[in-house]
Amino acid sequence: MQQPVPINPAAPPSVVTKPAARPARLRRRHGWLFISFLILVVLPTAVTFAYLVTRAADQYASTLGFSVRAEDSQSAIDLLGGLGGLSTGSSSDTDILYEYIQSQQLVEKIDSYIDLREIYARPEGDFIFRYHPGGTIEDLVAYWSRMVQIFYDAGNGMIEIRVKAFTPEEARQIGQAILDESTLVINELTEIARLDTTKYALDELLASQNALRDIRQEVTEFRAVNNIIDPNMELGVQTGLLNALQQQYSDALIELDLLRETTRETDPRVTQAERKIDVIEARIADERRKFGASSGPGAGEQNFTRLVSEFERLSVDLTFAQEAYLAARGAYEAKLADAVRQSRYLAPHIKPTLAEAAQFPRRYLTSMMVFALCFLGWCVLALVYYSIKDRR
């Protein structure tokens, strides 16, 4: 009789091995996957490359760059201290230009004298990259954003533009038009800023100028009506003349008194002295009547005093008007000089270039990008398909 074999509990259990996997083989889904790769990846890439090589027109690029500069000249003292010079314009000016170059207003202006529609619609065989005639201004602006690329460095306020066209000359012509229109915009901004700065000072200057002209007209009319250039000077002359006549009148009276004491009344010298006194009195009265309507004592002096008072009032007004005009003129000149010091201008550091070879469209790079995008899309669709299949 056969003895049973003892079981060792420490011995490991026997490992059960599964049969090996069956070798891979092509199935129908693999064929459809390959066909989808040809349709979704190879075919679009081949069509794109064929179009770029056979139909797409060459595009030439013109590059230009500029920045907004502001004059920062100082006074003579500042210049001696070395504080004068040029500084960059404010970022707001550059931001305005950045938006203006992309605006419909600039496109309309350039199209009015360059005819952008005709330039960009010229290669009739290129249906993708050319502009289609008959489009609206919005279509032209959208096409403009494709052909004019702007690179703006906000750190140093510099703008670089790349303009594409189907001939080198037209690309440079459009770039020059952009530069010219941008210069006009900066000049307009500078003029507006100058007018805003000097507007109040100019109003004050015009008001003081009108006041000075009016008071001068009053002085001229006063002199014409009264036949007097300077009443103060005339008063001095007439006062001296009257004083001399008064002195002669006093001497004649003294001489007459002496004659009456030493001679008889019938003496011819007494008669002659009396006649001399009458002549002097008549002359004094005539001199006084030159400046007064009445011939009473003091009438002439009172009338002349009124003239002098009126002239002094006009003189004070004239002096005040002249000082006000000089002050307003100085303020206006200071404001104008300050506006000139802070004027802005466009400083091109790269003038529109003339290309010698076509750089666009980039046929190989574009084809590779189309291939990469199509391949990525195909991979996503394949993963989605296998994910759904595995869940079944």
Describe the structure.
The protein has 392 residues and is of the alpha+beta class. The chain folds into two domains: 58-202 and 341-368, Bacterial polysaccharide co-polymerase-like, CATH 3.30.1890; 214-339. The protein has helices spanning 28-54, 76-80, 91-101, 104-114, 116-120, 137-147, 168-226, 231-262, 268-289, 299-341, 363-391; strands spanning 60-71, 86-88, 148-153, 158-165, 344-350. Strands 1, 2, 3, 4 and 5 form a five-stranded antiparallel β-sheet that branches. Helix 4 crosses helix 7 and helix 8 (231-262) runs antiparallel to helix 9 (268-289). The longest helix has 59 residues, at 168-226. The protein is rod-shaped.
Quick overview:
The protein is α+β, with helices and mostly antiparallel strands and 392 residues long.
What features would you highlight for this structure?
single chain, 392 residues, alpha+beta, Bacterial polysaccharide co-polymerase-like, 2 domains, 5-stranded antiparallel beta sheet, 5 strands, 65% helix
